[in-house]
Amino acid sequence: MAQHPLIAPLDVDCDAAGSMMCGRARAGHAVHPMQQRIAAATPAGWIDVIVASVALDGWVSLVALEGGRTLRAWTHERATLRPGEPVAVHELAELLAAGERRTSVVLR
What we know:
Elements: H1 33-41, E1 46-54, E2 59-64, E3 70-74, E4 86-90, E5 95-98, E6 101-104, E7 106-107
Antiparallel strand pairs: 1-2, 1-4, 2-3, 3-7, 4-5, 5-6
């Protein structure tokens, strides 16, 4: 999983805390165009997962359909995810896909 030393991933101090209107270009906040490019260039990087739980602090537990591996993701847009929902995660791009919607995440 990608680690970004110049990005403060859990920096939730923004004008739109808890909403989808965040304009921050940091991991876990608004999707950066480079994340979209990385995901488009490496389509085999998507992993099908199920949302296991969503915490109020933005941490989401995901379980991979193949192998049952558990991933933890932090996202500013936690309110849009529901336990049991099938989604996909791209570890290299740090994106979560729910249908056509793409969400930036921080993976741990």
